From TrEMBL, chain A:
GO CC annotation: plasma membrane
Cell compartments where the protein resides: Cell membrane
Membrane topology qualifier: Multi-pass membrane protein
Pfam families xref list: BPD_transp_2
Keyword Membrane assigned: yes
Entry-linked InterPro entries: ABC_transp_permease
GO function terms (MF aspect): transmembrane transporter activity
Stated name of the protein: ABC transporter permease
Major subcellular location class: membrane
Segments passing through the bilayer: 36-59, 71-93, 99-122, 158-175, 205-224, 230-248, 260-279, 285-304
Top-rank taxon: Bacteria
Source organism of this protein record: Enterococcus haemoperoxidus ATCC BAA-382
TrEMBL record, chain B:
Subcellular location(s) per record: Cell membrane
GO cellular component: plasma membrane
Segments crossing the lipid bilayer: 12-33, 54-73, 79-100, 109-128, 134-154, 197-215, 245-273, 285-308, 328-347
Keywords for the protein's UniProt record, in alphabetical order: Cell membrane, Membrane, Transmembrane, Transmembrane helix
Protein's organism: Enterococcus haemoperoxidus ATCC BAA-382
Name of the protein in its database record: ABC transporter permease
Length: 320, 377
């Protein structure tokens, strides 16, 4: 492989990873929630809260924590996302709310609340650009591998590798641990799980809160790598694309990760495509709409009727 | 089960939800160091300051009633039409496009044509999720969410690249339609001392009655409702659930499309590129939920939301409260409607009768396993 080709490919790979990372985190979150039987259309709102809180944290503490700020801000975003998802959890698990309505409330509430607070804190509708963002990263030894090192490990983005690691971990947790088995059983047949002594409510809370944590991190990563600040338009559809990735990946963490990488590639191409030879001749609208149209096609062609956890969207009422 | 206390609860739930939404808004204002009383006063003063502002309340309410009705029809059939924003957007773009391409045609020709084209665009947009649901069992929730984005980008593409340049003023903004296609009239403008008041609100009122009639007095309405209650029983009784699914989505989309038409030909008079989904979509959904799908309920909720939206615009100036508070209050109101089980339960408990509590538990519990039939993903 000659150097010229590497010089073209390496930035495309890196940018794809940059755009995919938030989607991977959020799609994994969605997987946990839906595996426990709670539909989560509120991922978009959860991402907004993650983005909001991480940017505020980043702006406030950049001087104190220096280069570690974005990472800490991600954790803050995750915790805030988790707290916000509690709203969805209480409503759907204890108060028998419709999952779609509750999730939509999360989506409606988050941007309004975020901008409201930004205006109260900073006196204007959007924040300044953050100073400490995730920079490029080169892996110490791996970058010296010929070709592969140049493509994947030099001047790349570290959060993406964390996201891939989390995806593998999520797969392990869901399919190889007792907790995962219980979580899935609650999403498939809560009555049976209850009979076996599994606490349905606790497992469902776990599912929704994990989705809040990962979704919050997703929003935080997006804000600190791509947007650089928080405004109304910072998160525009990424949460829904993540949901699409989760469905695309058939509610499997590794599948969701793969789909998120693909959607990240599509997003990157639709934005950076104007500089590339063949792609610049395709009208932007096709590339922008592609992830959404693909999701619909996949739903129709590959998934059919029976898919996803069986008890998804159904409230469980413990009988006395 | 239609006893008196249940009926009282049905009325109390939305009222209490609104009240609690406002209280939550007040708490948020207090925590963030603002004066809630001044905030709400500013809201009311702005909304009711002049005949013009009162006219604007009805301007805002028109499209909202349409999208709310659209949501209600699909919801009676057991579907969640989250695509109202996209369908309304289709109606908006199409009606403006038709109106602009016939600048010299007489009003009697171009106005009905533009309205019909917009309604048709909304209907087609909603037919996609309807057909997919009927023939492939694909969740209309996911499809409509995804289509919202598809239509958003498509509308931008149409305005920027497809419409001929002489229909545009700037990049992304079309020319204003001529008088011949406008829903505004000189009489209404004078009546409300210069507001954008237009026939849209009267069209909305007519459709409130029409849809009530359709749902309660016609066979189609009966079929839609019965499919919503139990699709299997309806199929067994000889109704085609496939046809009903598609019909209910098409009617829903037609109404959302008309909402977009009123927005285009009435409120704005042109189309400009949108950065995100139209708010009338989600607000319409909220209004329908708050109004419990009934005509009177939808009308009252639409007026309430319009007062909130318009009054909210005066809050930053008069009280220093960011306008976003209004959307927080609206979201909170729907949240309280969504958890109405809690409100019903507490109301029954407050009545002090064990029998009432049992009735509430049974009513909510029973409908549960089949709720979300539309959510098969």
């Amino acid at each position: 492989m000659d150097i010229a080709l590497i010089a073209v490919l390496a930035p495309i790979i890196t940018q794809t990873l940059v755009y995919s990372t938030p989607l991977v985190f959020t799609a994994l979150g969605g997987t946990f929630s839906e595996r426990s039987g709670i539909v989560n259309v509120g991922l978009e709102g959860i991402m907004v809260m993650g983005a909001f809180s991480s940017v505020v944290f980043n702006l406030t503490f950049a001087e104190t924590f220096g280069a570690a700020t974005p990472w800490l801000a991600c954790l803050v975003g995750g915790v805030v996302g988790m707290l916000f998802s509690l709203l969805h959890a209480v409503a759907t698990i204890n108060l028998r709310a419709d999952h779609i309505i509750s999730g939509t409330v999360v989506n409606l509430m988050a941007p309004a609340l975020g901008i409201f607070l930004i205006k109260v804190i900073y006196g204007k509708g959007q924040t300044d650009t953050i100073t400490e963002s995730f920079g490029y990263f080169s892996f110490p030894i791996l970058k010296d591998i010929p070709i592969l090192g140049d493509l994947f490990f030099k001047q790349t983005t570290l959060p993406a590798f964390v996201a891939i690691l989390v995806a593998i971990l999520s797969w392990f947790v869901l399919f190889k641990t007792r907790f995962g088995l219980r979580l899935r059983s609650v999403g498939e047949n809560p009555q049976a799980a209850d009979t076996l002594g599994i606490n349905v409510y606790v497992m469902r809370y776990a599912g929704v809160l994990i989705s809040g944590f990962l979704g919050g991190i997703g929003g935080a990563v997006f804000a600190q790598t791509i947007a650089g600040r928080f405004a109304v338009t910072t998160i525009a559809g990424q949460g829904f694309i993540s949901m699409a990735a989760m469905i695309f990946g058939k509610w499997n963490p590794l599948g969701a990760m793969g789909a998120a990488l693909f959607f990240g590639f599509a997003q990157n191409i639709s934005i950076a495509g104007s500089n590339l030879p063949v792609i610049s001749s395709i009208p932007a609208v096709y590339l922008q709409a592609a992830p959404y149209v693909l999701t619909i096609i996949v739903l129709v062609v590959f998934l059919g009727k029976a898919s996803g956890p069986k008890a998804i969207g159904k409230n469980y009422i413990k009988s006395k | 089960m239609n006893n008196r206390s249940e009926r009282i609860r049905n009325i109390l739930v939305p009222i209490l939800s609104v009240l609690m939404g406002f209280i939550l808004g007040a708490i948020i204002m207090l925590i963030s160091g603002q004066d809630p009383i001044a905030g709400y006063q500013a809201m009311l003063k702005t909304a009711f300051q002049s005949p013009k502002s009162i006219g604007e309340i009805f301007v805002t309410a028109g499209p909202l009633i349409f999208t709310a009705l659209g949501f209600a029809v699909a919801n009676s059939a057991g579907f969640f039409n989250i695509g109202l924003s996209g369908q309304a957007l289709c109606g908006w773009v199409t009606s403006i496009w038709v109106a602009l391409s016939m600048p010299d045609a007489p009003r009697m020709v171009v106005l009905p044509l533009a309205v019909l084209a917009g309604a048709l665009a909304g209907a087609l947009a909603a037919a996609i999720p309807g057909l997919l649901r009927a023939f492939f069992g694909t969740s209309e929730v996911i499809v409509t969410i995804m289509l919202n984005y598809v239509f958003l980008y498509t509308s931008t593409h149409i305005v920027n690249n497809v419409m001929s340049k002489d229909l545009m003023t700037n990049k992304g903004v079309t020319k204003v339609i001529g008088e011949n296609a406008s829903l505004r009239t000189g009489f209404l403008k004078e009546l409300s001392s210069g507001s954008r008041l237009n026939i849209g609100i009267f069209m909305a009122l007519i459709f409130l009655v029409l849809i009530w009639f359709l749902m309660k007095k016609t066979t189609l309405g009966y079929e839609i409702r019965s499919v919503g209650l139990n699709p299997f029983a309806s199929e067994y009784a000889g109704m085609s659930s496939k046809r009903t699914i598609v019909m209910s989505m098409v009617i829903s989309g037609t109404l959302a499309g008309l909402g977009g038409v009123v927005l285009g030909l009435g409120t704005f008079g042109n189309f400009f590129v949108q950065g995100s989904s139209l708010s009338i979509g989600f607000d319409g959904m909220a209004i329908s939920l708050l109004g419990a799908g009934s005509s009177v309920g939808i009308f009252l909720s639409a007026i309430l939301f319009s007062v909130l939206k318009l009054g909210g615009q005066g809050m930053p100036l008069r009280a220093g409260v960011p306008i976003e508070l209004v959307d927080v209050v609206i979201a909170a109101i729907i949240f309280f409607v969504a958890i109405s089980y809690l409100i019903r339960f507490l109301l029954a408990k407050a009545s002090g009768s064990k029998k009432e509590v049992a009735i509430v538990e049974e009513l909510v519990g029973k409908s549960d396993p089949t709720s979300q039939e539309g959510g098969k993903i």
